[in-house]
Structure formats: structure tokens, C-alpha cells
Amino acid sequence: MLFTDRWFGGIRETGGHSSNKQTKGETMQLIRFGPEGQERPGLQQMDGIVDLRAVYPDIPDIDAQFFSNQWPRRLSGLKVSGQMMQTRLGSPVARPSKIICLGKNYLEHAREGGFDTPATPLIFCKSPNTLNGPFDPVLLPRSSGQVDWEVELAVVIGAEGKGIERQRAWEYIAGVTVMNDVSGRQAQFADSQWFRGKSFDTFAPLGPALVTLDEIDDVHNLRLTATVNGQLMQEGNTRDLIFDLPAILADVSADITLMPGDIIATGTPAGVGIFRDPPVVLQDGDEVACWIEGIGTIRNRFVRQADQ
Ligand code: ZN
Question: How many A from CA of 303 to the centre of ligand 1?
């Protein structure tokens, strides 16, 4: 596998796997680039970055309004040269109303934790303060330890929906991306529920791009890995999801309205740190890379916060 340059050029893998459709004309990878808090919407192309504000001065940030106003459809087929530039990438989605996560959605991961396989999707939330750029540092909490990684395929919702039928679920998906569902195990297990351990600042690095589904042959057959300091820790395939994307959208939206820009992380395969023997927890300076075939890699250093 090829990990690609973090700053410019093809942030997708450039290997020749047959499931990639990067030679097609309508490929689209949405990014947000620029300093933190000042990100601009862009397209990542093989020849570099397209600054969408330079083309459409009124284009919104990649948020609920962007999807509601059909910008992905309006942008498909846009033919503009990209520019090579040194820039930071932000989370490819801004201000989601919610980040919903699936727990125990891969059989081997449920087994490694000694859990029963859930009969219905187990869902929980990360709050939006967790959102983080694909190459930004993750802050180790001051108050709680045992920080762990979870590579996950994340779905970004493109249209408001409630009571979504499985067979129509694809109409509600804007695209997919990579998320590290960073988890503070000490808080997760000490509290009687998971909110705090999952919602520390910076605990949801996302990206590098929002990849539209027309780029991906089969979203249910993508390899995914997590490495820590270059050592392979997780290796799975989305074909092993217990609940697939249509099942997840149908279940979650039964009585929870999904809004454009919402993020659903679909669960993690086996190989998280806390269930290893002996357990592994992240230390100051560790670097975690999460990769999904056909989407790309996010890479984050975990850092201790300076004393206040
Ligand atoms: Zn997770």
C-alpha cells in the first residue's frame, strides 16, 4: 500500500487496485484547507488543490448549507486545474449537528472485547468539539488516561432524512471518509456510559477528503488499517461490518432526524490497544495513521497538553 503526501497532490493512494475509479471524469474529493478556523472549501485533484472560493465566491463552507444547496452535484464535472500548495487540511466537514458512532460493529472486535454481538446497532455520540484535521495533533486529556485508537469508515450525510428506507439509503450519503474514533478508555470504562471518554477535544480526526461514492466500487469491500509509530495494529475489511451502511442509516434515522453534514462512524475492526495482551495505550509523541483503501490516510501525533 502507498501512503501519500500529506500536503498536496494525490492524498488518495496511488496504487493500482481495481476498485479505484480515479480515471473516471467525475471523481470528487472535497477538502477544507487553510489555517484552523479559516478553512476554505476545496477539491483535491491529482494536479493539486482547487480553491473553490476562487471559482465560486459565494460557495459556503462544507457544512449543512453546502449539502442542502446541492453543491456536490453542482461541482461534479467541474474542470479547473488544481494548484500545488503547502497548506494545512482541516476536517473535510464543518459544524455537523452530530457525530454518531457504532459500537461493536465488527465481529472480531466484539469478540476481542468479550462482548456479545449486538442484535441491533449499538450507537453513541461524540460531540462536535472532537472534530480535528486529518494531520493535526490529538491532545492527550489532562484528567483521564488510557487513550486508544479506532480506525473507522465514516459516512457523511448529504440530505435531511428520517425513517430512511434501506433501499434508498444511498440517496442520503454525500460520501465517505476516514475517522479515528479516539477513545479515552479510563473515562469510558469508569463512567457508566461512553460520552466523556469519546468526546474529549480533538478526539475525532477526520479526512483527508470527503470522497464521493461514485469514486468507490464497493464501499462494503474496503481494507482498513491503523498503525502506531509505523507498527500495524488494526487490519480489517468493511465487508465484515455486522450492520452495513443501509442498515445503519435505516436504524439510526427511525426516530432521529439525520441532517446534512452529520457524520456516522461505522465501527472499528479488531486490534484496538486496550484489548491487546498486554494492553497498549498511547503516549506523548506517538503517531497513529489510519488508512482506508480508496479514500486515504489520516495521521495524527498524540501530544501532552502544556500546563495551564
Ligand atoms: Zn469506534
Answer: 21
Q: Which residue has the higher pLDDT, 305 or 24?
A: 305
35-69 pLDDT, tens per residue? 999 999 999 999 999 999 999 999 999 999 999 99
Domain 99-304 has CATH 3.90.850.10: yes
Q: Omega into 260 within 30° of 0, i.e. cis?
A: no
What residues does each domain of the chain span?
Answer: 7-90, 99-304
Interval between CA 264 and ligand 1 midpoint (Å): 10
Question: Which pLDDT belongs to residue 26?
Answer: 57
Cα(267) to centroid(ligand 1), Å: 5
Tell me how far the alpha carbon of residue 284 lies from the centroid of ligand 1, in angstroms: 21
What does pTM read for this prediction? Answer: 0.91
CA dist list (Å): 218 to 176, 213, 225, 239, 295 = 12, 9, 17, 9, 12
Dist. CA 276–CA 291, nearest whole Å: 20
Q: For residue 299, what pLDDT is reported?
A: 98
Q: Are strands 263-265 and 99-103 parallel, antiparallel or unpaired?
A: parallel
CA of 108 to the centre of ligand 1 (A): 14
Q: Are strands 296-304 and 231-237 parallel, antiparallel or unpaired?
A: unpaired
